[in-house]
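Fold it.
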Amino acid sequence: MKRRICIVSGTRAEYGLLRGVIEGVQHNDPLELQMIVTGTHLSPEFGLTYREIEADGTPIDDRVEILLSSDTAAGVAKAMGLGLIGFADAFARLKPHILVLLGDRFEILAAAAAAMVAAIPIAHIHGGETSEGAFDEAIRHSLTKMSHLHFVAAEPYRKRVVQLGEDPGRVFLVGGLGTDAIQRERLLEREALEQSLGLTFGLRNLLITYHPETLNDQNSCAHLEELLNALDMLDNDTRLIFTMPNADTGGRALMQRIGDFVADRPNSWAYASLGQRRYLSCLRFVDGVIGNSSSGLAEAPSFGIGTLNIGDRQAGRLKASSVIDCPPRQADIEAGLSLLFSPDFKSSLSLVRNPYGDGGASARIVEVLRTASLEGLLKKRFYDLPVE
């Protein structure tokens, strides 16, 4: 009997990271892929990105509709409730042997809760990381305690998962999926990318993503305004390429403001979803990544470009020397941009090493999913750290 591996994806970025694992499961004969999509994949507002999954030749086994028109705290909590109901039905029908979850989003917490009470073992990817400016931090560590196999991106994260009481024998250091995706993806050349995006790159080019700081979402709009004011000081030869925020608490207000900013500036463009191929292709040709997305820490260093990381959303993550941290104030952001464009900083980028590894994570994950014993996997004993 084939081992049924169920993978859940709720966002465009998450799916891009999971593609290598999905394809590895698909092409591994002892394994059977089950694919569930949810969250923004099913939303017209966010680009109906489930179509990208289908275009890649991945059959979708179930769709769990959860997003409401509200992105208030109450709206997000209700979406989690809908997710719990929808995933309960999906798991009852699909009966997976292992559920694979990535990251730290609220959709994924709903899936994990449904799997936990259904006695389905959970394999969690990218645990042990920190993001102190978002409630994703609490979700990520909660997922670690609900999971039975752990795939981490770096040694400090492996130690942290063990510190949370997980058996070291179930924690696998595989590297980051972002660097894996860069190796796997066939990236677009400059002219083809420009044609696909409907723009022409300028003398300078910036890729910008700004998500809400969900532990401080009331200030997210004010912080975005500081960023936009700083960007407005750049000349028109600097192209500004925005990717829209996730479906987080308060995200729609940021989307509206970015849309208004772009509409008034001929050197600016905004995209609901670039997709992984176009996003990674952009990293080849831009001068830097701006905002507070994890991709500025996980993928951008592999392209030898700088990242201006604004605010606390990614506080606590491992960072390459190509990452410039700055507060969400216009003057600090302007100073950060000056450093990003400076000849000395740019010349240092050739020496940067990505702390998330150099690829191969997907194959390592699939091998564990194929070979791990299911007997006794659900029963966990809290692992106490040795007394020094």
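The first strand starts at residue 3 and ends at 9.
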